[in-house]
Amino acid sequence: MASESSTNNSITSTHTLPNNSDEEVKVMVPPLNFAMVAPGVYRSGHPNRKNFPFLKKLKLKSIMCLSSDEFNEELSQFVKDQNIQIFHYKIDGNKEPFIEIEQKEISNALVKVLDIRNHPVLIHCNKGKHRIGCLVGCLRKLQKWSLTSIFHEYRRFAVTKVLADQEFIEIFSEHVPYNPDFKPDWL
């Protein structure tokens, strides 16, 4: 059985490997709901201090936040220390019946995601479910995915509260004026 050793200020765990090995392994902790969207594009919930060693390994150029919340000091310091560019879109989630994500905001965010000069990029909202699910769903529409496949991927992360977001994705028709000279190969 692996044994864990840690200190009060530790942000990673060390484990001794089984079979009487003295070799230790640092455990990397990805952010909540972390996944690769496409080469150079990752999604997650809001990163915290214990995720920073993992994020360093990604060698991020950009972090995009879709949240009306302000960045916390730890994350602000991390992006400054790592020379990571921030794109912050103050977007509230879809809440029926009167609050809807603005298509223009998603279009503006997609322009940044579709520019390889910003890759690798981590896109996140608070939990990595709904707002990011809408952004990724709209990206999938640009990739010509079927709505069935888009909604299946969306539900894998969101689980609940899917109707308003799925409607948003389905009716998304905003022009996304990305620069074709810097578009990723997967588009």
Automatic annotation (TrEMBL):
Question: Where exactly are the transmembrane stretches of this chain?
Answer: none
- Has keyword Lyase? no
The record's Pfam families line, in alphabetical order, gives: Y_phosphatase2 (PF03162)
GO MF terms held by the record: inositol diphosphate tetrakisphosphate diphosphatase activity; phosphatase activity
List, as start-end ranges, the regions of compositional bias called Low complexity.
1-16
**An example Gene Ontology CC term for this record:** cytoplasm
Which Gene3D superfamilies would you find in this protein's record? Protein tyrosine phosphatase superfamily (3.90.190.10)
Enumerate the InterPro entries for this protein. PFA-DSPs, Prot-tyrosine_phosphatase-like, Siw14-like, TYR_PHOSPHATASE_DUAL_dom
Which keywords fit this entry according to its UniProt record? Answer: Cytoplasm, Hydrolase
Q: Where in the cell is it found?
A: Cytoplasm
Q: Where is this region: Disordered?
A: 1-22
Q: Which residues form the Tyrosine-protein phosphatase domain?
A: 33-181
- What protein name is recorded for this chain? Protein-tyrosine phosphatase
Which source organism? Gigaspora margarita
Give the organism's phylogenetic lineage.
Eukaryota, Fungi, Fungi incertae sedis, Mucoromycota, Glomeromycotina
